[in-house]
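User: Predict structure, ligand adenosine-5'-triphosphate.
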Amino acid sequence: MSLKKFAKMFSVEPGTKLDLSKNDLRDTSYFESRDEAERSLREDAEAIDELQDRLFAEGKQSLLLVLQATDAAGKDGTIRKVFGPVDPLGLRAHSFKKPTPEELSHDFLWRVHKKVPAKGEIAIFNRSHYEDVLVVRVHGLVDDDVIEARYDQINSFEQLLSSNDTRIIKVFLQVSKEEQRERLQERVDIPAKRWKFNQGDLEERKLWDQYMQAFEIALERCSTAWAPWYVIPADRNWYRNAVVARLVRLTLEDMDPKYPEPDFDPKGIKVK
Ligand code: ATP
Ligand code: MG
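Assistant: Predicted complex:
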């Protein structure tokens, strides 16, 4: 399937009205079966590794993958599964947490701009500048007009990156409220998962509807030709991983990085 067809299925068409509550989060229709999805994930992850090698060698363009989701939607797991085989030398993942006082004393894009990928790199944002129109909006951490201005600022920022050879893809991993309940409960019940449990997540969960509304606004206003948003049904991990891997692979194939031509004649050199 081409990137175009994939986008038709999963991307947010610029200018459309979104209703996230309509999405079937247990949908698995992109793949015929779980077996096929798992095979596809393995193949795509290998292909991503190879494409990343070409991207790194070429050194002319970069890829930025933005991951956003509610708690326990599986951002970490997705990164591990999709990028597991990729050479760490050309890959960076960064988690954006609550801003530090220093970060807060700058504009909201300051800390983000420092982490964008250099030429030849893939960077993954585990949360991102979108927090500044999501959690910040839901909790009213800054004035409404400040938030209002941020959507255009984000679009301009992403356009700047895009016109400087950074390809941007943004993924919203959408889980249902019930699936989140089960996963948070697991974090309480299973000893090896307890370190992930955060009391604060229960408070955020109470604001579920406000978060969904904030996501709808952000995705509607910031899905652009140069930095599209994709909404991936994420109630089933195996499906989520395989679909994200396919998106990353198709995007890298579309970027078509090439090994540079050698600046010497290989025929004329014999290593002794
Ligand atoms: P996990 O899903 O494994 O819990 P996480 O990404 O939720 O990982 P945490 O340390 O639990 O990591 O949470 C980071 C917190 O920081 C989130 O609640 C997020 O909303 C918050 N945060 C990130 N950026 C900002 C921001 N710009 N302003 C306010 N809060 C932010
Ligand atoms: Mg958390």
